[in-house]
Amino acid sequence: MKTVGKALLIPALCFMFVGCSKKEPVDKKEQETPITFSHEEQNFEIIYMYDEVQEYVDAVREKTGKSNETVFIEKVFEPFKKKSNMEEISLRYTFEPSSEVDKLAESIKDLEKDKDTTSGIIKEALLKSAKELPGKDKKYIIFPANPEDTFIVEQMGGVSGFVLSEDVIVLQLSPSMQEDMLKYTVAHEYHHLLAEESNRGTIRTILGGVVVEGKADSFAHTIYPKIQVPWQESMTPEEKEKVVAEITELRYSDDMKAYEKLRAGNSSKGIPQWANYKIGYEIVQSYRKNHPEISMERWTSMHEAEIIAGSDFEKITAYE
């Protein structure tokens, strides 16, 4: 869901995380070993940050006098930057320490129990995705979700993620996560990576954000056609008309707040929740229906205006 790190417009599918624990040396070494596998020439790593998150919890409980943010930087953020090869990334851009360390510790314990199952699901989804649309080597870095962010559990099946670069995705997981949502999210975020690989710089506007989410959902739906997600529920004709009017007006804006209102919904304007995802998916599905001869690789790399011009929503903008 979006979305979305780097310069992606997609709003804070970065629900903040926390972390870290000191365990027996043998256990810690074993847990920190990345899970690696390949599809043909494409290599994947699954990297868990549960140890670092537990170390954060332990350090906060010790009440050393340091702020949570300082402890978080030492125990989680610095190791994360090294593992992600994103040394330039800002703490403020991606993470926020949690004060609910007891709940966080319980989450880590539960997530650790299911780690083998989680890894299997992620691996399956990545291999399916790579078979459909191969790309460069990728890393998926896994955090426990911040227990203060109930949105992930209540609205997203216990799973969310965001893109850091064309090579790195961060997933945040709740112990209550639904397996289908994990599969779908892995595929959805994988497509964001492929889109960033092939078509940089075209998703810096509201219109670009709408279409890139539509592409990712169209791809994930191709991989997992039986999985239903709330942001693909159909809009009424009246809702669709209002959403189209809204994105037509905002199409070249890069206003994050306006984009967030599309995701959150705006009842006063008749805009439903997930409007950006809903209309983006309809646009891309319409394009694919109208142009079945166009390969997935080709439409993944297309500019958003070209997709729109070839869809049933061409009135939003003309391809330039």
Short description:
The protein folds into two domains: 25-198, no CATH class; 206-316, no CATH class.
What does this protein look like?
The protein has 320 residues and is an alpha/beta fold. It folds into two domains: 25-198, no CATH class; 206-316, no CATH class. 52% of the residues lie in helices and 9% in strands. The chain is built from 14 helices and five strands. A five-stranded mixed beta sheet has the order 1-2-3-5-4. Helix 2 (50-61) runs antiparallel to helix 3, helix 8 (179-198) crosses helix 9 and helix 9 (206-223) crosses helix 12 (275-290). The longest helix has 20 residues, at 179-198. Mean pLDDT is 87; it is low at 2-31.
Give the key terms.
single chain; 320 residues; alpha/beta; 5-stranded mixed beta sheet; disordered N terminus
Secondary structural class: alpha/beta
Mean pLDDT: 87
**Shape annotation:** globular
Strand order of the largest sheet: 1-2-3-5-4
**Low-confidence segments:** 2-31
Order of helices and strands: HEEHHHHHEHEEHHHHHHH
Whole-number tally of structural domains: 2
Which bin fits the share of residues in helices?
Answer: 40-55%
**Tally of individual helices:** 14
- Total DSSP E strands: 5
Which sheet architecture does the biggest sheet show?
A: 5 strands, mixed
In what range is the share of β-strand residues?
Answer: 5-15%
Query: What is the CA–CA distance across the termini?
Result: 29 Å
Radius of gyration over alpha carbons? 20 Å
InterPro entries: DUF2268
Protein name: DUF2268 domain-containing protein
